[in-house]
Design a protein that fits this description.
By secondary structure, the chain is mostly beta strands. It has one domain: Sandwich (Jelly Rolls), CATH 2.60.120. The chain has no helices and eight strands. The strands form three sheets. The protein has a three-stranded antiparallel beta sheet with strand order 5-2-7, with no helix packed on it. Strands 4-3-6 form a three-stranded antiparallel beta sheet, with no helix packed on it. Strand 3 and strand 4 form a beta hairpin. The protein is globular and about 30 Å long. 9% of the residues are buried.
């Protein structure tokens, strides 16, 4: 994920299980309105149905892995 611009949360995903693993760089994750830094090699599990947003607010690239069950294709819901 390249350094990003400020974007408001406009949609969320519907899933049973979502796990985000930050492989390198520093990201910011907002889960249900609470922001937290996610350092390299840290992991976070997002509860079912909770609004979330993953952002790179740094000047460096972030590499991350997302594990979603079921698959996350076409599962966005406008909020």
């Amino acid at each position: 994920m390249y350094p990003c611009f400020d974007k408001k949360l406009q949609s969320t995903r519907i899933f049973t299980f979502l796990d985000i693993i930050n492989l390198s760089g520093e990201a910011v994750i907002e889960v249900d309105g609470e922001r937290q830094a996610l350092q390299a090699q840290q992991e976070i599990e997002i509860p079912h149905g909770v609004a979330h947003q993953f952002r790179n607010e740094s000047n460096l690239e972030v590499i991350f892995l997302v594990i979603s069950v079921p698959k996350s294709h076409r599962d966005r819901v406008e909020i």
